[in-house]
Amino acid sequence: MEEKSDFEKQRLKNIEVKEKLFKDLLEARAKLKPKRKIASEPGKYKKSPPPPREKSSRIAKAAKENERLAAIASDAEEKLLRTLELQDLYFSYGQHEASQEEVAIEFEDFVDSMSLSTYRNKSNVASTEDVQSYLSRLASMEDRFQKAKAPEKLVMRSITSTSIHPDVNTVLVGAGNVEGKLFLGRFSPALDGPLEEFHFFTPHDKSISHQTWNRFNPEELITSSHDGTVKIFDIRNLEASVLYGDVDFMAEEGKCSTHAQVDKNTFLVSREISGERVLISLIDSRVYSRRNKDFRISFQAESINSIDVHPTNSDLILVAPDGSPNLGLFDLRNISVRGRAVTPLAKLKHSFENVRAHFSPITGNKVIASNENVVQVFDTENVTGGGGGSIEKQASVTDGDFDRLDTLGCWHPKFDNLYFRNTRTSSPGNWQIRTFVTGPFPGQSDGIEIGDAIPCVQQKLKFLSVHPTLDVILGFSSWGKISLFQQSTK
Fold this sequence. Notes:
The protein has about 500 residues and is of the alpha+beta class. It is built from seven helices and 31 strands. The protein has helices at about 5-30, 55-80, 85-90, 100-115, 130-140, 145, 245-250; strands at about 90, 140-145, 160-165, 170-175, 180-185, 195-200, 210-215, 220-225, 230-235, 240-245, 260, 265-275, 275-285, 290-295, 305-310, 315-320, 325-330, 340, 345-350, 355-360, 365-370, 375-380, 390, 395-400, 410, 420-425, 430-440, 450-455, 465, 470-475, 480-485. A five-stranded antiparallel beta sheet has the order 1-6-5-4-3. A five-stranded mixed beta sheet has the order 11-12-13-14-18, with no helix packed on it. It has a five-stranded mixed beta sheet with strand order 15-16-17-19-23, with no helix packed on it. Strand 4 (about 170-175) and strand 5 form a beta hairpin. The longest helix is centred in the N-terminal third of the chain and has 26 residues, at about 5-30.
């Protein structure tokens, strides 16, 4: 057996020493007694909570405001997304009472019997003889309620918008008020006829600022409101569904002041948040009401007074902004970017405030803009592409009788050159519905002249609506008195 080397001997000795050291450590650990754990008294060493911190008044106010907005949004969402049915809409007002079943039957009968055979016949512009024949009939018109010795006929207080249905068998008139209530009244087309039915509904929470009948579905009334929604009131089913509604927009107290119909499914809606922004939204009724294309007009506006669509070119729209000295003609084909400011094809310089403007109803070749004391006419026949050009007024009429009247005029929907307004006469307390006829006239190219009038109107009529085919003119005072001018059968 070989003898171990010195290195190997030293290595084995080191292992032996370490093993003995490890054994001694284990024995020493086994002899140690475990330390007894001392239980502490409950709560003896528990830290006391810090004193409550005072809440920031700014944060507290913000929290309350957030709760308020959340409650508004919750209530608004429920109402916006739900179609209001007859039991939600109908209410009795004054002496006008009827059961919901009776109301449903009456409107179903009306829809089934309506006739609109000549409503959309706009292929030919009425001749000068047709206009003069119509004007000659104005003198024989009488107010239905004055004839019945009921000049104080009060429908609803604080009227904000009106409309008249194109049916030729029954005269159906509408009026909205500042509380969001909607009046629909049915009358015989003859002055001496017996039919008179008044019904009241609540499709909105705030002022109904504008209303029009759907040009492609006469069973639907479109209403814009300062509650931030635009709704479709279906008179066959007596229900109100949402055309436009946005919970966030309502929570910011946004309002919809006016609208216009582009085609069967497309609408323009003005959307305003006071002191912040003014937008026009292009709405497709076939998709969800919040999906839309927004654009801004390229000049300053506090709100939108009116929007109108050209009768033969639906790409061309006329916008009357409040707080601007110009009307704007816009091409919808230029709208491509959400929120983008669109440059007008042309600006119509009117130089007065609170103006509303509309195309002539047949050709759209003329625009009439009016406010409290001026009626101006513009020639838009040759408007083409480009941008930023100006169109000067062709003619205007200023009359002392107009001074601060705050009455809204309207075109006759059947004639391309006949405009109506309510004005004072020289006799104290008397008014008249005055007509304005646009040119061309014999011996001169174009212009505007004051035509015949309906005399002896006993009140100021802020709102006028003219039936497209019957000799019927609807008038409302802002405080809710109705005038219905018709020809007597006697």
